[in-house]
Amino acid sequence: MKRIIFTVTNDLTYDQRMKRICHTLATAGYDVTLVGRRLPSSVALTKEDYKQKRIRCRFHRGKWFYAEYNIRLFFYLLFRRMDAVCAIDLDTILPCLRVSQIKKIHRIYDAHEFFTELKEVISRPSIHKRWLQIEKKSVPKFKWGYTVSESIALEFKKRYGVGYATIRNVPLLFEAMEPRPATEKFILFQGAVNEARGFEYLIPAMKEVPYKLVICGDGNFMPQLKALIKENHLENQIELKGMLLPDELVPIARQATIGIGLAEKQGLNQYLALPNKFLDYIHIGLPQISMNYPEYAKINHQFEVAVLLDDLQPQSIAKAINDLMQDDNRRKQMQQQCMIARKELNWQHESKKLIDFYKQIFTA
Predict the structure, then answer these.
(1) Are 324 and 138 in contact (CB under 8 A)?
(2) Strand partners, 87
(3) For position 120, what pLDDT does the model report?
(4) What is the reported pLDDT for 146?
């Protein structure tokens, strides 16, 4: 049985992509371990069919966290038996690279995002320079890799000459879908509350929208988000739910009228990515407002599941929300398109590509 260790910097609880990947490979006969970190706020891990390990750190953010976590991760990996190690994103790539060289084992790069093209990285010159050095040093040494969109895979090929596969972060398809409950109309945002998610434009837009906005998630932009809500006097119209487990999130999403997922163009990551929430909204049968970027447009051309915005002006956002919220027929058509799209864009299909990818590594 081949042993694979996956490395992330989160605490494992809310990472649905890694849960799907690890479960799929464990079911396919691999001995899988997922390594993350323990936070003061970490809740107990759920029992899975793969091993889970959390590393405790003294530092929890910034350069000292990354330094400490990478050192601790290196020594953890050094003394573990494995046949392959997979670095999830750039922030765990160095220890995986070094250990794979020492042990002479397969190394894989799983780029959930284009790390050096994140707004929070690219807008800070000194930080961007350091991560770009790490990317240039490491990525070309990872022959095997995959990412979440064809657009990002093509950019990696252009920059580093690596031919990475595309394995999209699509949800598992559940056949049974209950009718949507009739509730008061509201807008849902679910996912990471991070920079470049367009909150600076969405929150002012809500002053022109007579509906409630429910935000489910947390992230590095949360302090600024709270300040924006207060500054625009929208405390009674915008509800912050924080991080929720899937069992807590789904009932809320099932009651929502539309979903929203904006993204700024600063940094190629937001422009080229195919975010989780775009696919999650489809699977829940939720019409949505998103961006007219390549990966969104590609799917929306085939299945009209979204209204795609060309700009992030608050007036444009408010108009799109109000128009869609008031057009019951269009929302119904989008819901029907979601039901068709989810039968093609699901983990049951995508997981076959993942299994074939790892089979190729171990038979090469």
Answers:
(1) no
(2) 7, 109
(3) 87
(4) 98
Identify which of 147, 150, 113, 115 has the alpha carbon closest to the alpha carbon of residue 299: 150
Judge if 30 and 150 occupy the same domain. yes
Interval 36-51: pLDDT, tens:
999 888 888 989 999 9
Rg (CA), the chain: 21
**Amino acid of residue 281:** Y
Instruction: Show the tokens assigned to 321.
Output: 């929300």
Q: What is the mean pLDDT of residues 75-93?
A: 97
**Which CATH number covers residue 88?**
3.40.50.2000
Contact predicate 208/314, CB 8 Å = yes
Q: What is the pTM of this model?
A: 0.89
pLDDT in tens, 108-163: 999 999 999 998 899 999 999 999 999 999 999 999 999 999 999 999 999 999 99
Strand locations in 201-263, DSSP E? 212-216, 238-242, 258-260
For the record, the structure tokens of 211 come out as: 């509906």
- Residue 145 belongs to a domain: yes
Check if the beta carbon of residue 246 is closer than 8 Å to that of residue 16. yes
Q: What is the mean pLDDT of the chain?
A: 94
Is residue 352 within 8 A of residue 167, CB to CB? The reply is: no
pLDDT at 174: 82
